[in-house]
Amino acid sequence: MPNIRSTLPSRLRQLLSGETTISPIKLDSEPPPQIKAFIDKVIQSPLQDIAIPLSDFQWEYNKGNFHHWRPLFLHFDTYFKTYLSCRNDLLLSDKILEDDSPFPKHAVLQILRVMQIILENCHNKSSFHGLEHFKLLLSSTDPEVLIATLETLSALVKINTSKVNGSGKLIGCGSVNSYLLSLAQGWGSKEEGLGLYSCVLANERSQVEGITLFPSDMENDCDKSQHRIRSSLYFELHGLNTQSTEESIGNSNSTRVIHIPDLHLQKEDDLVIMKQCIEQHNVPPELRFSLLTRIRYAHAFRSPRICRLYSRICLLAFIVLVKSNDANDELSSFFANEPEYTNELIKIVRSEETIPGNIRTLAMLALGAQLAAYSASHDRARILSGSSISFTAGNRMILLNVLHKAVLSLKGSSDPSSLSFVEALLQFYLLHITSSSASGSNIRGSGMVPTFLPLLEDSDPNHMHLVYLAVKALQKLMDYSSSAVTLLRELGGAELLAQRLQIEVHRAIGISGGNDNSTVYGECSGYSDDQLYSQKRLIKVLLKALGSATYAPANSTRPQNLNESSLPGTLSLIFGSADKFGGDIYYSAVTVMSEIIHKDPTCLPALLDFGIPDAFLSSVLSGILPSSKAIICVPNGLGAICLNAKGLEAVKETSALWFLVDIFTSKKYVLAMNEAIVPLANAVEELLRHVSSLRSSGVDIIIDIVNKIDSFRDSSSFSGSSSLEKVNESTAMETDSEDKGNEENRCLVGAVDSVAEGISDEQFLQLCILHLMVLLHRTMENSETCRLLVEKSGIDALLKLLLRPSIVKSSEGMSIALHSTMVFKGFTQHHSAPLARAFCSSLGEHLKKALTGFGSASGSFLLDPKLIPDDGIFSPLFLVEFLLFLAASKDNRWVSALLAELGNGSKDVLEDIGCVHREILWQIALLEDAKLQLDNDGASASSAEPASQQQETSASDAFEQRLNIFRRFLDPLLRRTPGWSAESHFFDLINLYRDLGRSGGIHQRLGIDGSNMRLGANNSTTSNASGTANKKEYDNLRSYHTSCCDMMRFLSFHITHLFQELGKVMLLPSHRRDDSVNAPPASKSVASSFSSIALGHMNFGGHVNSSGSEASVSTKCRYFGKVIDFIDGVLQDRPDSCNAIILNCLYGCGVVQSVLTTFEATSQFLFEVNRAPASPMDMDDGNVKQDEKEDGDHAWIYGALASCGKLMAHLVASSFILSPFTKHLLVQPLGSGDVPFPRDAETFVKVLQSMVLKAVLPVWTHPQFTDCSYDFITTVISIIRHIYSGVEVKDVPSSSSARIMGAPPNETTIATIVEMGFSRSRAEEALRQVGSNSVELAMERLFSHPEETQEDDELARALAMSLGTLKLTQM
């Protein structure tokens, strides 16, 4: 059984828009196996032993996604709720000392450590929940727990430095912000002598002196006083009537103060002191956390170690608070009390001799957090603008001097705190360089280059991450400032970069360099994972910096002296050992080569002497790495080499461009291509556009890709699918791009293999075609490339590939169809004829197969839910629908060529389309009739499943609603929206098809039939013993049946839309300029063929079923309603005008008369089936509901009559038919037929009105007319109104004779004319004709056009109005 057919998923939309890749196997929807295994291990462990499986956790995964870790975090929530939520010491309750069990410190610290690691390495953290547990943890009196909690919160609210300048999304901490504010305030304000700097410095001095805080012989009374203030508890209770004690001083009845001096001398712990305060002062719960915080800070002076921990807590709390998205109020309050807090931090940073490195590092991180929040949020920038974050020139120089000293102090230093401090400084300045703030702009112009250059010579492997930050800062600085490039080169920085790159590359590939530094690396051959990752990042950023260093607009000389530089040899080594470095480094190396050539094309001979282009071409020929970056850069590198004649010759001789065949048809590249396809297609298009000599071979390559993909069969003959080529294990140098937002990932390329192996052959084939469509879409925009593809028979090869049944009915079939429309739209008018010819040939072939299948079916109900759909019939129909979708898509440039082809050499294709369409409409009518019968049977048999029936009905209604949306989008009469580009149209179309897919696709997944029918209903009584396999087969059959039903509906719509597009092209001159339309022979032929199709539809009486009886009347009525809707849809050119060529042929072939005859017969049948009231007693309330039920039962009659009425209303509306540009097409026959034509267009309209009136009057005068439905009566009244309004030629303003349209008739003017004895209708008509509200002009018009005898007409109109009013009253 073929795969179920679904509509477009969201993968292609993101693929084309350049967003992150979504593969068919939905890699982001399920966690990787390694993550899932770890989570399961933790969850399966006993809750009380949760620390055991967490103890050895380290980040060993690829790019993190927080959604993958949600089950683990939910498990953590369970632990917190079990062991923390009921603890009195954390809730700060009255029983604060009465917990039964000790605090589980070890387990909590392990959980917080794991949470911190995960949050630092994941995105999508905005969905994090569980902040209420952090409020409890912040109430702990253990400083280690506090620090771990704040570090975890810091990881949660971490701002990605690559997404600042207002584009980063900050995460809020909610109710935790008030706790953070209390902790960030530390010991007190600077005005009270309790500022952060003074408290930290006092604690460090006490440790250095090695004495007690307050010795009796202390000489400095001022310091003694300050120490006493810092260790004293002073807490105000506002608005409370508390009992004063020996340790409390009450100033008033509304304010009480808790004052406990020398708290550091008390031996009790924090909770005991807190318990005493609660009991003695009746502290309310909302103030207890603030009180506990004051107790903790004052009591911390009992130990220098604890005091230092609380210094870290104070800084960490500020860091989290400043980065929390919803802490604006708390920050405003904080800076209102501490306006000089930034200067306090700078003082701490400067105090290198008295304050330890970890405190200085946190102070530097606090400065960086302010800057990151300032750049990422406008609201936060407004709050921080007054906090001295916009550093003065003096402060900038101070920090630069600190950085310079810190860099110099690194030599021979292994102190981790020193490394962390330098790293924080470098991250701060890197952020400052990329910041859009005024201070960032100022610092770009300062002398930072000499400060960073010494780090390039630092050969300590432990300092590699610092070298990386310095090089990255230099690279960003050069990107922003050309003067920095000049300064760097003057100071020899470019050569330093090249030398450092050479050292790292040699180290990576195991080559001993001549530099002395290589001996240091030789001693460190066993690099740790962190050092290896730092080396990968460093090589990549060195290449980027060298690329930036080649740009110097003020210098016209060569960017570098290649003969003296080590860069060429290093690039050759990277190209020669690309598998050792990975795609990112390879991409950067190719980019550097390209930039050198583009800046100075004359240097290419020198590069050829160094062998750089040859090494690059060899790397391409030996096989591109399965990396999106590596794939994207190759066309750009080839384009740069082709700027020189020798380079172009080398590219041709090596046939390097043929690498495209491998990456488009090999399974190992499929995932990388998902991300690379759009930029790759753009690069290939640019290469073929600029290098014309490669264009012919480029087209040959594209055709070869098409043929190779087409050679893939449904068996196992996929390239690289049966035995997937393994990536060389030495690709461990692969690094993630910075877009991942996490530079701490340790990702290896080898992980691609396990993912690619999970892609089935069918998915691989679909992705290959989708990637090919993207490439064709971009390259065919060039007319010369398009011409070559046509000449080389590429269209035939492409259609052969697209029309494989396995593709059309696959899950990605509609995706491919949608993108194919964009490919074919790229064909210009000059190259459209071959496309139209190939299209018609292929379409005719599959139409013949479909007609053969219909003939063998002998008119049976093919969509019977109790039967298995005949694949011999539906398989070619799927292909026909695919082709018609390509042709019927809007704004196709080749529709004109298609019109010419169908009107000349492919007339038989139109006839076959008509025959297939007739069968399709008949099958849909049978399906709707069977659906109604099943619904009635189900309702009469049992009412036990109203919910399921309602679900199916709502599902069907949803499908119809989405189909109407789709129809309005593609219908040429309803999509007159200016300013749409082809790309925006395509993405809108994708979204609409995705909505449709939610209707059909969800039904398939849930086993709900979109047609409200259950396939194999007679099997509903089977027992459960049928087994899972039978149920799955049953579901597949039902899903395939649903797909066939949907396909029939869409095929009918596509045929209608095809004729609409052809009709639009017929009248194209009138749409573009104000002149008359001439009907060319092709237009006449197609219009005549359409009329013949319509007449054949109307004369079709249905098939005889298998029992030998004719179809029911309801089926025929439904069928005729759909036929007339089809005719009416094609007849309309615009919502307010018709296609005169189509109308001419419809009238000449007798289609109009056939429609009127059908209306008469159907209306008379309606009167026969309508029950006439037998007596006045039948009109009671109970029978009103019965009448309404009968109206619903006769919906199939009213549906056909409504379709007829809509078409008839168009036929009698003179403004709809007559146009100055097309009315001359109505005076002589354009097609075959014996119906005589009137002498002019106005008479033509009158003839149509007479024909319609003749058909309507029997209905109008029928005694049961008033018993019909309200909609039917309204339709008839509308027709009568159009008829008796006369003939009015639409006045379209033209460039030659513009006419200002008059104002609408004024009621006062109408009343004046009516008072003179004229009827209201004649008064309105006269005012419309004169185009103004002038009574004189209207009277002149009335006297010059005497009224004919219209007594019967006026009576009829009065009757119509009265009938309409009567029916409205009854409703």
From TrEMBL:
One of its GO terms (molecular function) is ubiquitin protein ligase activity. Keywords: Transferase. GO terms for biological process: protein polyubiquitination; ubiquitin-dependent protein catabolic process. One of its GO terms (cellular component) is cytoplasm. Residues 714-723 have a biased composition (Low complexity). InterPro entries: ARM-like, ARM-type_fold, E3_Ub_ligase_DUF908, E3_Ub_ligase_DUF913, E3_ubiq-protein_ligase, UBA, UBA-like_sf. The keyword Nucleotide-binding does not apply. Residues 714-742 are annotated as: Disordered. It comes from the Eukaryota. SUPFAM superfamilies: ARM repeat, UBA-like. Residues 1304-1345 form the UBA domain. The keyword Transferase applies. It holds the Pfam family UBA_7. This is UBA domain-containing protein. It comes from Hibiscus syriacus (Rose of Sharon).
